[in-house]
């Protein structure tokens, strides 16, 4: 297969034009393009531009709101609540992170709960935006159930990623962005697309048996066994208890009928008051 090269700005324009042709509003077009292209630039192709056809399908079939009306409520001095009106997860994530930075400038710390959005995508795009402006940032989301329960035969939690970013005096920010599963379920879709086998020991079929066949894989194992399962439970509680949204098996899967309007993001930020602060 011949590989074609594209510039960062050219690829962003392409994504924006494709989404705009489906009726997506300018803010969402820009947010999604930033998220997808940023993922590719950092080598996370599972969350890159390959998701564009899926997002267009969401938009054209009504699975995601192409022109959402965000509703933002300041619930406490350092907390806010964003109803994303079933918009794109990237648009909701950037809106939440920007609001958190404003609040953290006033209060020193900020938390945002986000409801009624869709697939979060590349969460490092949100936290790195904050870190680039001098903030320490966390981001979490619960997902549709794809994790094979530890010592179990079926699923309960999702891949429930954890993302953290912090500024450095020199160079790019430090960033950790990882699923609590050993692999993301997007890796299964990528393997189908490329005709590849899955890595051995990380995926299970509908009977809970190990498989390397992406067409048979239904579940992903937790990262580090019981530790990944426990971290996934922690993220589930943070995201659902604070927002009142669906949890565990009640959460809509990403690959199914349309998008998932019940996804949640939680962002925590701590602003630096002077350059002597350390992590």
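-> sequence recovered:
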């Amino acid at each position: 297969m011949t590989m074609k090269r594209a510039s960062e700005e050219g690829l962003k324009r392409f994504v924006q034009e494709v989404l705009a042709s489906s009726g997506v509003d300018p803010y969402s077009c820009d947010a999604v393009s930033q998220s997808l292209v940023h993922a590719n630039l950092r080598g996370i192709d599972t969350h890159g531009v390959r998701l564009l056809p899926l997002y267009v399908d969401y938009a054209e079939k009504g699975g995601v709101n192409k022109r959402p009306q965000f509703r933002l409520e300041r619930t406490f001095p350092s907390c806010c609540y964003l109803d994303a009106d079933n918009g794109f997860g990237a648009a909701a994530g950037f809106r939440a992170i920007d609001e958190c930075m404003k609040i953290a400038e006033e209060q020193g710390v900020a938390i945002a709960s986000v409801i009624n959005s869709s697939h979060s995508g590349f969460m490092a795009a949100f936290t790195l935006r904050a870190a680039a402006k001098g903030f320490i940032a966390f981001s979490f989301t619960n997902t549709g159930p794809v994790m094979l329960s530890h010592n179990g035969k079926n699923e309960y939690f999702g891949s429930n990623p954890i993302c953290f970013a912090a500024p450095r005096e020199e160079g790019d920010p430090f960033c950790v962005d990882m699923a609590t599963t050993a692999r993301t379920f997007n890796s299964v879709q990528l393997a189908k697309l490329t005709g590849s086998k899955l890595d051995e020991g990380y995926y299970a079929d509908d009977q809970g048996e190990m498989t390397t066949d992406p067409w048979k894989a239904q579940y992903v194992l937790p990262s580090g066994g019981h530790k990944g399962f426990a971290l996934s439970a922690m993220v589930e509680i943070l995201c659902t208890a604070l927002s009142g949204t669906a949890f565990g098996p009640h959460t809509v899967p990403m690959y199914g009928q349309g998008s998932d309007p019940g996804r949640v993001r939680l962002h925590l930020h701590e602003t630096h008051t002077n350059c002597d602060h350390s992590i």
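Confidence is low (pLDDT under 50) at residues 255-266, 270-279.
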